[in-house]
Amino acid sequence: MTDDVEAAPSAPAAARHLAPGDVGLVAPRDYTHAEPFTFRGGQVLPGFSLRYETYGELNAARDNAIVVCHALSGDHHCAGWHSPADRKPGWWNNLIGPGKAVDTRRFFVVCANVLGGCQGSTGPSSLNPATGRPYGAAFPPVTIPDMVRAQRRLLDHLGVAAVHAVIGGSMGGMLALQFAIEYPRLVRRVLAMATTGRESAQAIAFNEVGRQAIMQDPAWNRGDYALGEGPRVGLAIARMMAHITYLSDASMDRKFGRRKRRAAEAEASAFDVQFEVEGYLRHQGQSFINRFDANTYLYITRALDQFDLEEAAGSLESAFAPVEAETLIVGFTSDWLFPPEQNRALALALLRAGKRASYAELATDLGHDSFLLESEELYALVRGFLDRPAAPAA
Amino acid sequence: MEKRTVDMQIIGDWVEPGTRVLDLGCGQGDLLAYLMQTKGVAAVGVDLDFSRIAACVRRGVSAYQGDMTTLMRAFPERHFDRVICSRTVQELAEPKAVILEALRVGRALTVGFVNHGFWKNRVAMLLGGRKVRNEVYTTAWFESRPANPVTIADFEDFCAALGIRVTHRAHLAGNWRDPCPFLPNLLAGYALYDLTRA
């Protein structure tokens, strides 16, 4: 997911966190699981921690939790502001807040950085207690089910008895689906957007180019590098390429067209930035390396590639057989990373399995990142799905 | 009783409780919500329009946004106990293909349509010489969706020609309420058919 989805302008910077409808200032917390955790692949960590945020209050019945799952490069900070000086709020701030589509007056919203992540949760950049150095490539291969199982521990810790809904886009949608498969009694609703039951060859191919950019950078050193160092060039290139896949031809054309940087800047060399789109991508790459770990990028893209509901269960219908949740899948017409067909296939398989499932498709030209779109239509859909009291099973 | 709801009750009478129902062109899910409430069906709707799907989702009706034939092709034979095509059939680009596909995925198919053979429609065309406009078809030709003005006689011929078995018929008078057993192609305003493969 991109990290520059049109930040709402308006209000002076100092007061933006006080905007009505925003959750305001928020602070992350850490959950530490002190018992051994076994990954799908069989490897064991002595424990792990997850960094997370919550907004709203858990109700007396402890059944109003909404679990928000982030995408590849996202994190636990999905709404509100960490400080009045922040340039931007949490990544899904337009959707989550008091009175918004995910209404924090009514719901207890939980969002955790995934296991294997690098924003505070245990991952390859965490210190390996056995060596005193970051795990690096010694970190166990992490899967989407591992991420979900780790988050289940967090929900238990928070005292959540039933999950009103799990929601997410892209990889977050995979987690949401996996939640409903893994914990059918816990999850009442799933809202998965711009996602897939398994990546196409093209999506795997894009991830592989990103991984190669990282691994071919000598500073990667087979995953062994000190904190704050590592394959910065490779990670930036991986991000630049991936970023293109989150947008669309039309949205890039609208945003940049063939506009050029001023001649004085462009004269330095024929291959310095000439077009605005180049400057934009370089900026995206540079800002990414300051907040993301290259090994986590390798691990999580691999988790995305490995995710295959069909293979795991024989068919998509069989994969969904345990699901008890009511599901809403949303596809976006211009998403060429996880295109509408792959989203439709999820809804059709759920229906074939006899589940309560809906599919809606929004016409947008913003590409894969459309799920972050500021759209009243999308908000109304999400609100309608979440607000109704849980329907009795048909 | 409104014309909007009368066919719901007849269809409701034909639907077995607790069965699996697919509604082609489900709109905002009025019929399916009614069948869920009264018959406890497991309902699925299909429609092309985002806002109608959103309305279905809001009331707890499962709905799929997309082409109805594409949807049906994704299901095995007789997956549904009943497929319903209520006031949609006259707007289909390929009604025959849809009806045959519906009879594949459904054990039964319910079709409801306005009878364009109804005498008022004939008279309106004959005397007025213009596209029929009434309380059901309110719009002028240039702001209407393309429609096949199907009649009861047309539909009976179609079923006979394709060997489709008619298990129930309901012909309703011009008020869409009273039964119309006599000369339905001339005197009935609305028709409902329940079909199965022969």
Description of the molecule:
The complex is a heterodimer of chains A (394) and B (198). Chain A is α/β, with parallel strands linked by helices. Chain A has 12 helices and 14 strands. The longest helix of chain A is centred in the middle third of the chain and has 15 residues. The radius of gyration of chain A is 21 Å and the shape is globular. Chain B has 198 residues and is an alpha/beta fold. Chain B has a single domain, classed as Vaccinia Virus protein VP39 (Rossmann fold). Chain B has 8 helices and 7 strands. Chain B has a 7-stranded mixed beta sheet, sandwiched between helices. In chain B, α2 links the parallel β1 and β2. The radius of gyration of chain B is 16 Å and the shape is globular. The chains are: A alpha/beta (394), B alpha/beta (198). Chains A and B meet through α11, β14 and α12 of A and β2, α3 and β3 of B.
Any descriptors?
heterodimer; A: 394 residues; alpha/beta; Rossmann fold; eight-stranded mixed β-sheet; two-stranded antiparallel ribbon; 33% helix; globular; B: 198 residues; 8 helices; 24% strand
Concise structural overview:
Chain A is an alpha/beta fold. Helix content of chain A is 33%, strand content 15%. The longest helix of chain A is centred in the middle third of the chain and has 15 residues, at 144-158.
Question: What layout of secondary structure does this protein have?
Answer:
The complex is a heterodimer of chains A (394) and B (198).
Chain A (H helix, E strand, L loop, with lengths): L28 E5 L3 E2 L5 E2 L2 E8 L9 E5 L26 E2 L4 E2 L4 E5 L14 E2 L4 E2 L9 H15 L4 E7 L1 H12 L6 E5 L7 H15 L16 H15 L2 H7 L7 H4 L9 H14 L4 H13 L2 H5 L2 H5 L5 E7 L7 H13 L4 E6 L13 H12 L7
Parallel strand pairs in A: 5-8, 5-11, 6-7, 11-12, 12-13, 13-14
Antiparallel strand pairs in A: 1-4, 2-3, 4-8, 9-10
Chain B lengths: L2 H12 L5 E5 L5 H10 L2 E6 L2 H9 L3 E4 L2 H6 L6 E7 L8 H11 E9 L4 H10 L23 H11 L1 E9 L11 H4 L2 E8 L1
Parallel strand pairs in B: 1-2, 1-4, 2-3, 4-5
Antiparallel strand pairs in B: 5-7, 6-7
